[in-house]
Amino acid sequence: MSEQITYASAGVDVEAGDKAVELMKAAVARATRPEVVGGLGGFAGMFDASAIARMTRPILATSTDGVGTKVAIAQALDRHDTIGFDLVGMVVDDIVVCGAEPLFMTDYIACGRVVPERIAAIVGGIARACEQARVALVGGETAEHPGLLGVDDYDVAGAATGVVEYADVLGPDRVAAGDVVLGLASSGLHSNGYSLVRRVIGAAGWQMDRDVPEFGRTLGEELLTPTRVYAADLLDLICDPAVVAGGGVHGLSHVTGGGLVANLARVLPAGLHARLDRTTWTPPAVFTTIGALGSVPQLDLERTLNMGVGFVALVPEPAVDAAVTLLEARGIRTWAMGRVTHEADAAVDAAVEVVRGAKGVHGGSVQLVGTYA
Questions:
Q1: Which Gene3D superfamilies match (predicted)?
Q2: How many whole angstroms separate alpha carbon 247 and alpha carbon 59?
Q3: Three-state SS string across 108-173, please?
Q4: 3-state SS assignment for residue 323
Q5: What contacts 26, CB < 8 A, 6 or more positions away?
Q6: pLDDT tens digits, residue range 13-22?
């Protein structure tokens, strides 16, 4: 063989990777906390955990996730600075469900070819979202996979770790009959159900630059709306003196894959029932448009998409006003959408589906009734 084969000729550009790191440094530097030790470029991210030693019984919480096929929308629009909010939201907001404070996060980007500006845009979005969530971005990895991924293809994943005092862990054991179910508005589709969404718009022949009057913007702009990151606001809700005085937060549920009903059922104890009323909110236009455009059955739509509810908080009646006031002040529309009762006393509609537990959790039951406002 007369031709020399180098790493670069095999499709891996080390210099491009180094340039990407230089471009992302400033954004990553802002996504930090006082406990971070060292800086960007080490083999491992380091975090000073000495504060944990002062806790009575510290419980570590960890989560990992990706963004799914929403990356196809970012690639189609060649806009990569928002997908990081989707990644961070999917990871750190799962940790908050148990009452834990997310401390630090790492990311992983696999791509067919390193384009420094693209990688820097992705990581810049991750860093901004971490900064908003008060989470340190302590490290990451960008891997170039020529021949496995197309030159403009990439996928993102991340993992985070948090901590909570054992006595403060939120779980089904805290939820009680009489608790009010509060819905926290989503920013849109968030990061779930895009396989369905892409199938619907593909079958309809809609293009990303199509102006959709119901959205007030183009289809692509609507679909790329970043996931709302709730972590910091929910941690403040848990600690708010007025909320605590009213009985505190009893439970939280992150509405992701599986939809509202199934995810709420995961955080209810067996024997309790939550009845949710559709008349208490109007799903944003993107949900009804996708449903109508693809003739998607309502139950299938609700099992796949969040329908305008990104998170659920379960609080006792005396804490409702304080919780709503705090969240609304943070720009999160919040409303009472139902109530928890003993299943034996619940007014269960026999004609409506009841979901009991989900994803391997043997939990309580949830029923969604009525017609959307």
A1: PurM-like C-terminal domain, PurM-like, N-terminal domain
A2: 23
A3: EEEECCCCHHHHHHHHHHHHHHHHHHCCEEEEEEEEECECCECCCCEEEEEEEEEEEEHHHCCCHH
A4: helix
A5: none
A6: 667 766 767 7
Q: What is the pLDDT of residues 229-264, one digit of tens each?
A: 999 999 999 999 999 999 999 999 999 989 999 999
Answer whether 255's CB lies under 8 Å from 353's CB: no
Bridging pattern class, strands 354-358 and 361-369: antiparallel
Distance CA 187, CA 170 (A): 25
pLDDT of 1:
53
pTM: 0.92
Helix, strand or coil, per DSSP, at residue 249: coil
Beta strands 180-185 and 309-315 are: antiparallel
Other Cβ atoms less than 10 A from the Cβ of 208: the count is 15
Handedness of CA 29, 44, 17, 160 (dihedral sign): negative
DSSP character at residue 100: P
- Indicate whether 53 pLDDT > 80: yes
First to last CA, the chain: 71
DSSP letter at 81?
S
Kindly state the DSSP code that residue 191 receives in the 8-state scheme: T
Q: Which two tokens stand for residue 58?
A: 């510290």
φ/ψ of residue 90, rounded to 5: -65, -30
> Residue 240: which residues within 8 A CB-CB, separation 6 or more?
322, 323, 326
CA angle 119, 122, 125 (to 5 degrees): 145
Residue among 237, 215, 225 nearest 319 (CA): 237
Specify the length of the chain in residues: 373
